[in-house]
Amino acid sequence: MNEKVAIKIDDLTVAYNYKPVLWDIDLTIPESVLMAIVGPNGAGKSTLIKAILGIIKPIAGSVSIYGKPYQKNRKLVAYVPQKGSVDWDFPTTAFDVVLMGTYGKLGWIKRPGQNEKKIALEAMEKVGMLAFKNRQISQLSGGQQQRVFLARALAQDASIYFMDEPFQGVDATTEIAIINILKELRRAGKTVIVVHHDLQTVPEYFDWVTFLNVKKIATGPVKDIFNDDNLTKTYGINYKVAVNK
Amino acid sequence: MSIQEYFQLVWNDYTLRTITGGTAVLGAICGMLGSFAVLRKESLLGDAISHAALPGIALAFLITGAKDSGVLLLGALVSGLIGTFWIRGITSKTHLKSDTALGLILSIFFGFGMLLLTFIQKQPNANQAGLDKYLFGQAATLVESDVRLMIIVTGISLVVMLLFWKEFKLLLFDEDYTKTLGFNTKFIDIIITFLIVLAIVLGLQTVGVVLMSAILLAPAAAARQWTNNLSTMVILAAVFGAFSGVFGTAISASQNNLSTGPVIVLVAGVFVLFSFIFSPKRGLLFREIRFRKNRSDLQLMKTLQFMYSIAEEHENISHPHAIRILNNFHGFTKTSLKKLENEGLIAINGQDWALTPKGFKQAQEMYNQKPANE
After folding, report:
1. Number of other CB atoms surrounding residue B242 within 10 Å
2. Confidence of residue B128 (pLDDT cuts 50, 70, 90)
């Protein structure tokens, strides 16, 4: 395992109206892992990602990306939000949405040109959505919407990818297509962090895992720490059903 | 004056030309910026802003003692902006939802504005008459300098919009994502909101506090029906807005000087109604037609499928069968058979029918068809 650290989080604490949602999270994520964040509903999984990305302001703590504060290395980070977080009736096409992935590197005011369009088309091809590029986004199925969001993140050409439940409400074909792309990203040395719900597939899909329930329960390689003990600590019930490898 | 006379006069008559120009420009800028308000699901923000502008107008008059529309609109702008930022503040700092915040600010500011207006009316100042025109607007008071101001503001908004088009679109679609890309979403939000407040304030003299939000929303709501493209929507909304302004003015001028603001709003309302019914993709009429056509197509395909199940058992797929054997099958009629024949799917010979090879093939492939537009 490469020992280079991609993300280092210190003392991260988030609270909504005095109620802590994340409590004093320390987390070090090495480069080139495919990591699942697991935990029960309300454990703060999405909040953790949003706090790392600065969407939610933490009340304490710091995040560094490759040794620099997140704000300095923001361009190395791509984000795939939950697909339910936007209005899919917005008047635009799938291609336009993917093109948005290139806006960050473009910066203010500059318009996307030939180069950006090429990047967007390549990203759409990778997720198998090229045929749908001119499709109005409201005419896409749930799985296709998820692929469009993934393509948008790919167009960011980042080193670290955060994904909020990319497998939610997609069919088996799309799930396999997405996980194959994520595995390919890891092989290319990228770090991928996924909020994940399906415990059964954790050992198959991921090589790194973080157990979260307001506090960090455990983090490390799946083969070492994905066990009944940690699952029980995280979910609070005796977790004998979990698949052990 | 009839409508024809109006359109002959409009180029030469100073008053008519000024009013028409003003309402057209106002409709255009409001339609344009209203698209953003509609897509941000902040339709009611316009209503709150216009009501919040009223105390500003009254205070500007009390402070300066002059009824210069530029000064009064500046007051409106300031109090409109204060109202908007209080709404934003309430939603972000308390548990109240945005509709509550909008309602609160709208009524409190409007109440304060009305209070100031009645206070002003009690003053022994001859100059005070006519401030209440800002309630319902009075297009007839527009002068050339007002129109020039509208054109300048519209021009500036247009430039800002073209400059930040990419950022606006991004923020409208996905605000969180915009943040992660490193854009300052507060800044983009302030620009959009500021432009909307400007447009509203410009319209107060013509349309008035009470009806202003309709000019902002109606053209945008109508435009959304006709297109799935953001830039087309904004352009279309501007065009609808401008036409509402012109037609509204024409109708009000030709019908005994009916109050212009309400007529413009009603014309814009007609645009909305027409669009809701007749737009090809989202309109009610075509949806109903599509629904019926699908239903009748489905009926035909069911009949064909039934015929296929009979024909399948014969070696010759085009072996003729009596029409009578279909009698127990629901959904077949003489017309539906005729339709199938016209499409070349079956052949009818006296009392017999037979599947054609084309009909057989279509029935066979019915369940693994690809959508036609893929």
Report:
1. 21
2. low
